[in-house]
Amino acid sequence: MPELPEVEVVKKSLENKLKNLTIKRVIINNNKLRYKIDSKKFNKINGKKIISVQRRSKYLLINLYKDYTILVHLGMTGKFLIIDKNKKYKTSFYYSLKENNTKHDHLTFFFNKKIQLVYNDVRKFGFIKIFPSKEVYKCGHLVVLGPEPLSINFNFDYLNKYIHNKKSKIKNLLMDQKFVAGLGNIYCNEVLFLCKISPTRSVKKINRAEIIMILKSIKKILKEAIFLGGSSIKNFSNAEGQVGNFQQKFNVYGREGLSCRMLKCSGTIKKVYTSNRSSFYCPKCQK
Fold it and tell me: Is position 55 annotated as part of the catalytic site?
C-alpha cells in the first residue's frame, strides 16, 4: 500500500501534468470499487478546470474550480496512468507500462489538449469520490486523521501528551492514522531502527529523549524518501517515469536474515508480527 512519500510523489506528478486542464467527460467502465462510484456526481464535473492537487495523509485531493474536489485513495493496487498524445506516463504503484492490463481500467478522465487520466485498480480496494470542496475535509475519511508528520503540529508536546498512559506497542501507535497521518509499515520500521527502539516496546516505556528521536527520525526519513522519489517496491515511478530510490536505503524493511547495517553491530534482522503486520528489526540494536 502506498505511504505518504509515494502519495506525495504521485500528487506532484499529477499536479504537474493536470493543473489548469479542463475535464471534458468521464467514462466509467466499472463503478464497483471499494465504494460504488456515483455516476451522477461525476456528470457534475464535466467542464471543470483542475486548479490544484493536494495530499492529506495517503489521500489525493484533486481540486476543481470553485465547486468540487475529487477524493482518491489508491488502496493496495490503485494507479493512475496519463496518456498525452499517445505517450503513456506512470504515476502510481506496483506496475510497469508493459504490465498495464486495460481490463482493470475503471475510469478514464478526458481533458482538453487530448490528455487522458486513467484509473486502474486490479484488486479494487481503492476508491474515487466527489465532494463539494467546502465539505471534503469534514468527510469521514479525513476528519478522523491525526496531524501531518511534517507539519509543525506534530511536535514534542503533541506526542508526549498523546502517549501518556497508552498501553499499545510503539509500532502500532505509529501506524495509527488517528495519531499521525500517512505513516505506514515501511517507514515505521525504518524510523524505529534509527531510534534503536524495538517495534514491540510498550509506549509506556518510551522516554523523553526517545520521543525527540522519534520525531526527528520521522521527519528526516519522510523528507529523504520524498526527495528520492519514494520506494520502488514493485516498479513504482512518477509521471516522468523516474523510479523511486529510497528502497536502496532500507535498513530493516524486507531484510529478514541479513546482517544489521548499524556500524559495529553483529546482529541479524528478524521479522515479527505486530497486529498482523510484519515488523523488521535488529534485536541487538533495538531494545
Answer: no
Residues 223 and 251 in one domain: yes
Structural domains of the chain, count: 2
For residue 9, tell me if it sits in a domain: yes
Of the candidates 3, 8, 15, 190, the residue annotated as catalytic is 3
Final residue of a structural domain among 106, 138, 170? 138
Active-site residue flag, 3? yes
Residue 243's pLDDT band, with cuts at 50, 70 and 90, is: very low
Give the pLDDT score at 232: 44
| Catalytic annotation, pick one of 2, 5, 147, 149 | 2
Catalytic residue among 17, 58, 79, 255: 58
Judge whether residue 185 has pLDDT over 60.
yes
Can you tell me the distance from the alpha carbon of 177 to that of 184, in angstroms, rounded to the nearest whole number?
A: 9
CA distance 142 to 58: 10
Q: Is 114 left (phi over 0), alpha (psi -120 to 50) or beta?
A: left
Candidates 49, 166, 277, 284; catalytic one:
277
Q: Quick check: helix, strand or coil at residue 109? A: strand
